[in-house]
Write a structure and sequence with these properties.
The chain has 511 residues and is an all-alpha fold. It has 21 helices and no strands.
Length: 511
C-alpha cells in the first residue's frame, strides 16, 4: 500500500511537469512563470521552499531536544518574521523594481540596480558556491525515515527523488514547480497536523505529554525543574539566534526572494501574505512543537551515538503503517519542493548572470532556456552524488552546512537587497563590503572556528550575527563612500512613483 501511494504521488508530479511545458518556452516563462503566478501558488511555493526535510527531521529534532517546548518560538518566528514581515516589507517593492529593471534573478537585480557587471558576477558565484551544500543537505533526514518505512536501500530513494524532481522541473519550469509545491504544501499541512495528533495521543494527550516533559531533568543542560516545559527553555539566548537565522534569513535567500518576482498583481500579494503566514505557522510551528516533546522518548533515543536526526524518526516509529507512509510522503514533499526551487535559482543564476555575455556572447532566448535545463540536471546530479557519498561514508558534516549556507547567503545579500529597494543612498561599495563580509565570515566559521569568539563558533549564531551586522555595515559604508549616480538612482526609483488606478475600497480619491 505504501509503495502504491508513492507511485501515485510520483505520477502526479511528472504529469504536472509535462502539462506545464507550454509555459516554459522562454526565460521569463521558465524562471518566473511569466510573472503571472497567483496568490495560492506563490504562497505555497514560498512556504514549501522554506521548509524542507532538514527542518522537519534535523532542526525540529535538534532544537526540540535542546530547548524543549520553547523550540516552538522558532516556528512562530518563521511565520511572523520569515513569512508575514517578508511579504509586507519585500513583496510589493521587489515585484515592482525587478520588473522595472527587467531582472529575473538576484545577481541580475544587483547588476542592473548598480550598473555593475562585476557585482552581478560575484553575486552569482556566491550563490553557486553556497547553494550546492544546502541542496545536498535536503536529502538528510530522509534516510532514517525511509529505512523505517521501506525495506530498500536509501540510495534508491536519493536517485528516485533526484530523477523525478529533474523531470518535472526540466519539463515545466517554475510553473510546474509552483503547482507541485501547492500539492506538496497541502500534504505537508495535513501531514504535520495528523502526526502531531497521533504522537500526543500516544503520550496521553497534550496536557499529559506536557506534564511528562516537565518531569524530565538533564543536569548537563539545567538544574531548574521543568525547564523543558517552560516558556523560554534552558537557553533563551541561543534559541534567539535560532529564531533570527531561520526567520530573518529568508529575506536574503535568492530562491525565496525570487518568489516575489513572479507575483501577478496587488491582490495576489495581499492574499499571499495571509496564506504564507498561515502555512508557516502550521508547518514550522508544528514541526518545532512536535520536536519539543522529543525528550519524552529519551529512553529510546541515543543522541550521542545516533545524533539529533534520530529524535523525530524515533518519535514516529510506533505509528501505524498508514501514518508512517504519510510521514514519508510529507518529508519527500518538503524535500522535493525545496530542491526544485534551489535548482531553478542556481541554474538560472549561473546561466543569466555568469555565462551569458561573459563567456557566451549573444546567447539567444532558446539557448538560455536549454542551458538552464542542462544545469538543472547538473545541479541535481551533484547534490545527489554528495548525498550518496555522505550516506556511504557516514560523513556527518554536510548536514551542518545548511547553517553555513543560510548564514553566508543571507549575510551577504539580505542587507544590500533590502536597502536597495528602499534607500537611494545605498552605494555599490557597501554591497561589495557586505558580500565579502558575510561569505568570508561563514567560510572562517566552517574552516577555522577557533579564531572566532566562542559565541560565533556555532554556524547558527555566526550566521545570525552576519545578517544583523550587514544591516549596520551597508548604511555606515554608504555614508562614507562616493554617492551613487543620481540619474541612475532616480530612474530606478521612478518605478514606485507611477500612477495606478485602484478601486476606492483600496484608496480614497480626491473629491
Amino acid at each position: 500500500m505504501k509503495v502504491v501511494i508513492l507511485i501515485i504521488y510520483f505520477a502526479v508530479m511528472i504529469g504536472i511537469g509535462l502539462y506545464c511545458r507550454k509555459n516554459a518556452t522562454d526565460v521569463n516563462g521558465f524562471v518566473l512563470g511569466g510573472r503571472s503566478v497567483g496568490p495560492w501558488l506563490t504562497a505555497f511555493a514560498y512556504g514549501t521552499s522554506y521548509f524542507s526535510a532538514v527542518v522537519f527531521v534535523g532542526y525540529a529534532g535538534q532544537f526540540g531536544w535542546r530547548y524543549g517546548i520553547a523550540a516552538t518560538w522558532a516556528g512562530i518566528g518563521n511565520a511572523l518574521i520569515g513569512s508575514l514581515l517578508a511579504w509586507v516589507i519585500l513583496g510589493r517593492r521587489t515585484r515592482i523594481m525587478t520588473q522595472h529593471l527587467d531582472s529575473a534573478t538576484m545577481p541580475q537585480f544587483f547588476g542592473q540596480r548598480y550598473n555593475s557587471r562585476p557585482l552581478k558576477i560575484v553575486a552569482s558565484v556566491i550563490i553557486f558556491i553556497f547553494l550546492i551544500p544546502y541542496t545536498a543537505s535536503l536529502y538528510n533526514g530522509l534516510s532514517r525515515l525511509f529505512g523505517m518505512a521501506f525495506n530498500i536501500d536509501y540510495s534508491i530513494c536519493i536517485v528516485l527523488m533526484a530523477v523525478l524532481t529533474a523531470i518535472y522541473v526540466i519539463a515545466g519550469g517554475y510553473m510546474a514547480t509552483a503547482i507541485n509545491d501547492f500539492i506538496q504544501g497541502i500534504i505537508m499541512l495535513f501531514g504535520i497536523v495528523t502526526v502531531i495528533g497521533a504522537v500526543l495521543k500516544a503520550n496521553g494527550g497534550f496536557l499529559a505529554a506536557l506534564d511528562g516533559l516537565g518531569q524530565i531533568t538533564d543536569e548537563t543542560v539545567s538544574t531548574t525543574p521543568g525547564i523543558f516545559a517552560s516558556f523560554f527553555g534552558p537557553d533563551p539566548l541561543n534559541l534567539l539566534f535560532v529564531v533570527i537565522l531561520t526567520s530573518l534569513g529568508t529575506w536574503g535567500l535568492p530562491q525565496m526572494v525570487q518568489k516575489f518576482y513572479a507575483i501577478t498583481d496587488e491582490n495576489a500579494i495581499q492574499k499571499g501574505t495571509i496564506i504564507s503566514t498561515f502555512f508557516a505557522l502550521v508547518v514550522a510551528g508544528g514541526c518545532y512543537f512536535l520536536g519539543g516533546f522529543g525528550r519524552l522518548f529519551s529512553d529510546q533515543v541515543d543522541v550521542v551515538a545516533n545524533g539529533y536526526d534520530s529524535v523525530i524518526p524515533t518519535m514516529l516509529q510506533n505509528l501505524s503503517p498508514m501514518l508512517i507512509a504519510l510521514v514519508v510522503i510529507l518529508v519527500l514533499s518538503a524535500s522535493m519542493s525545496t530542491l526544485s526551487s534551489l535548482v531553478i535559482a542556481s541554474s538560472s543564476t549561473l546561466t543569466i548572470d555568469f555565462l551569458k555575455d561573459n563567456f557566451v556572447k549573444d546567447m539567444s532566448e532558446k539557448k538560455q532556456v536549454l542551458t538552464i535545463r542542462v544545469l538543472v540536471v547538473v545541479f541535481i546530479a551533484i547534490s545527489a552524488i554528495i548525498a550518496l557519498i555522505q550516506y556511504k561514508s557516514a560523513v556527518t558534516f554536510i548536514a551542518q552546512l545548511m547553517g553555513i549556507s543560510w548564514g553566508a547567503l543571507a549575510g551577504a545579500f539580505l542587507a544590500p537587497f533590502l536597502y536597495s529597494l528602499y534607500w537611494k543612498g545605498t552605494t555599490k561599495i557597501s554591497c561589495w563590503v557586505c558580500f565579502i563580509f558575510g561569505s568570508v565570515l561563514m567560510i572562517v566559521d566552517m574552516l577555522m572556528p577557533a579564531v572566532l569568539p566562542e559565541i560565533m563558533r556555532s554556524p547558527i549564531n555566526c550566521g545570525s550575527i552576519a545578517m544583523l551586522a550587514g544591516l549596520v555595515i551597508v548604511p555606515v559604508v554608504s555614508l562614507f563612500t562616493p554617492k551613487p549616480d543620481k540619474q541612475l538612482v532616480d530612474e530606478t526609483f521612478a518605478c514606485y512613483e507611477k500612477d495606478t488606478v485602484v478601486p476606492q475600497k483600496t484608496a480614497l480619491g480626491k473629491q
